C-alpha cells in the first residue's frame, strides 16, 4: 500500500498545482449554486427545503464534471511517454490504477465538502433528517466512483485526452440514460429488468431517501471493479 499512497500524493500534488482543478471546482459551485438557489427549479420550488432536490443537482453536475477530471489520468501518461519511467520503479499496474483512482475520488470528495454550506443552510431553514443527508453524500461518492472508473478505462484506450473525455461521456450516457430508455421500451420481462438493473439511476435514486440496499452497494462496487480491471488490461496491453 506504500506505493499506492505515494501515487495518491503525487497525483494530488499535480492536480492542485494545476489550474484545471480550480476551474472545475469553480464551475461546479457556480452551476450548483445557481440551480439550487436562483433557478426556476430551485430547491424550494416544491414548497419545502428538500435534500433530494439538492442531491439531484449534484448528481447531474458531477455527471459532466467527472470526465474532465479523469480524461488525463492515463492518456497523458501515454502521450508523454512516462509509463516507461513509472514501471521502471517497483510499482505494479494495479497500484498505479488504485493510486490514480483514489486521488481523483479524493478530489471529488473535497468538491462535495465545499457544498456543505448548502446543506447547512437547508438544515437551518427546516427540519432535515441528517441520516438521509449522510446517505445522499454516500450515494454521490459511490456514483462518482463508477464515473471515475469509467473515465480511467476510457483514458486507457487513447493518448488523446479529448477523445477520452467523449468516450467517458458516451459510456456515462449509456449507464444513466440509455439503459433506462431501453428498459422502458421493453416494458416488462427479463430484458426490461436487466436494463433497469444496469441503470445507475435505478441504484442511486433510493439512497438519497435514506434507503441503502445491499444489491445497490454490490452494483456500484461491481461497476468500479469491472472498469478498473478493463483499464488495467489496456494499460498492460500497451506496455509491450
TrEMBL record:
Q: What is its main location?
A: membrane
Q: Which Pfam families match?
A: ABC2_membrane_2 (PF12679)
UniProt entry tagged with the keyword Transmembrane helix: yes
TM ranges: 12-37, 57-75, 96-119, 131-150, 162-183, 217-235
The compartments listed are: Cell membrane
Which molecular-function annotations from GO does this UniProt entry contain? ABC-type transporter activity
Give me the Gene Ontology terms describing cellular component: plasma membrane
Membrane topology, as annotated, equals: Multi-pass membrane protein
Q: What is this protein called?
A: ABC transporter permease
| Source organism, top-level taxon | Bacteria
UniProt KW keywords: Cell membrane, Membrane, Transmembrane, Transmembrane helix
Amino acid at each position: 500500500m506504500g506505493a499506492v499512497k505515494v501515487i495518491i500524493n503525487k497525483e494530488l500534488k499535480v492536480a492542485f498545482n494545476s489550474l484545471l482543478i480550480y476551474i472545475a471546482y469553480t464551475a461546479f459551485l457556480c452551476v450548483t449554486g445557481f440551480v439550487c438557489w436562483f433557478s426556476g427549479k430551485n430547491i424550494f420550488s416544491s414548497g419545502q427545503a428538500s435534500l433530494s432536490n439538492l442531491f439531484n443537482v449534484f448528481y447531474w453536475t458531477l455527471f459532466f464534471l467527472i470526465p474532465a477530471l479523469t480524461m488525463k489520468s492515463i492518456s497523458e501518461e501515454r502521450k508523454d511517454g512516462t509509463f516507461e519511467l513509472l514501471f521502471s520503479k517497483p510499482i505494479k499496474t494495479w497500484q498505479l490504477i488504485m493510486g490514480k483512482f483514489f486521488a481523483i475520488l479524493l478530489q471529488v470528495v473535497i468538491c462535495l465538502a465545499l457544498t456543505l454550506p448548502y446543506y447547512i443552510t437547508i438544515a437551518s431553514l427546516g427540519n432535515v433528517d441528517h441520516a438521509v443527508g449522510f446517505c445522499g453524500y454516500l450515494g454521490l461518492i459511490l456514483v462518482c466512483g463508477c464515473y471515475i472508473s469509467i473515465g480511467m478505462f476510457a483514458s486507457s484506450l487513447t493518448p488523446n485526452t479529448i477523445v477520452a473525455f467523449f468516450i467517458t461521456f458516451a459510456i456515462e450516457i449509456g449507464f444513466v440514460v440509455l439503459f433506462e430508455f431501453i428498459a422502458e421500451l421493453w416494458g416488462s420481462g427479463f430484458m426490461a429488468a436487466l436494463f433497469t438493473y444496469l441503470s445507475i439511476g435505478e441504484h442511486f435514486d433510493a439512497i438519497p431517501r435514506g434507503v441503502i440496499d445491499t444489491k445497490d452497494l454490490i452494483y456500484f462496487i461491481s461497476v468500479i471493479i469491472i472498469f478498473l480491471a478493463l483499464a488495467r488490461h489496456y494499460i498492460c496491453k500497451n506496455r509491450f
